[in-house]
Amino acid sequence: MLLKNIYEEYKQDVFKYLVSLTHDISLSEDLVSETFLGALKSLHKFKGQSTIKTWLFSIARNKWYEHLRKEKPTISLDDLSYNYLLSESDLDDSIIKKELSNKILALLDSESPRTKDIILMRIEGYSYFEIGKKHNISESSARVIDYRIKKKIKNILAKEANNYE
After folding, report:
1. Cβ atoms within 10 A of the Cβ of 35, count?
2. Which run of H or of E encompasses 17?
3. Closest of 45, 49, 54 to residue 6, by C-alpha
4. 98-102, long-range: CB within 8 Å, 24+ apart, which pairs?
5. 72 DSSP 8-state letter
6. Which pLDDT tens digits describe the chain residue by residue (165 residues)?
7. How would you write 20-71 as a 3-class SS string?
8. Which domains occur in the chain, in start order?
9. Is residue 60 a contact partner of residue 11, using CB atoms and an 8 Å limit?
10. How far is CA 75 from CA 5, 12, 36, 80, in A?
11. Cα 108 to Cα 104: distance, rounded to the nearest angstrom
12. Most CB atoms closer than 10 Å: which of 17, 71, 72, 157?
């Protein structure tokens, strides 16, 4: 398959995936370009052991990580977990954000090792497909586990917030 055809077929999927990671449309557009440039350079290495879409998502995730490393020398798990759960939040107080991030990670400690790993993989930007493959579960099961834990954490945090009021 020609890269032009691959680009036309998967550019929207790659863009949506990157927006879900970056929460920044402009940055995602730039990373789409870098992703397909990276794909062009490594097309000869593609062995077909995964789908083209999975391969492109892997390249896209790596391009995003490269960008993060350039912008910030180290990215803490606290920062990633905060972005995972509270990306829509308008909280401006960084102390509250840090405490919330620590609380999220502490709540994950009470989950089974498999569930915790699934959520940490999701926080780090892995696709449900990749999570399912690692844990020998379906992509749908990975989505359900992620959804349930996210809902559980939000409910616990909401109850705690109500107790403080």
Report:
1. 27
2. helix 3-22
3. 54
4. 100/157, 102/78
5. S
6. 577 888 899 999 999 888 887 888 888 899 999 999 988 888 878 777 778 888 888 888 888 888 877 775 555 666 666 666 654 444 344 445 666 777 888 888 899 999 999 988 888 888 888 899 999 999 999 999 999 999 998 888 788 766 654
7. HHHCCHHHHHHHHHHHHHHHHHHHHHCCCCCCHHHHHHHHHHHHHHHHHHHH
8. 3-71 (1.10.1740.10), 77-164 (1.10.10)
9. no
10. 35, 27, 25, 7
11. 6
12. 17
Is 0.85 topped by the overall pTM? Answer: no
Contacts of 165 (CB under 8 A, 6+ apart): none
Cα–Cα distance, 15 to 37 (Å, whole number): 14
The per-residue DSSP string of 73-140 comes to S---HHHHHHHHHHTT-----HHHHHHHHHHHHHHHHTS-HHHHHHHHHHHTT--HHHHHHHHT--HH
The answer to whether 57 and 14 are in contact (CB under 8 A) is yes
Two tokens, residue 143:
């989505």
State both tokens at 12: 């929207």
User: How far apart, in whole angstroms, are the C-alpha atoms of residue 3 and residue 39?
Assistant: 8
Q: Which tokens sit at 39?
A: 């794909």
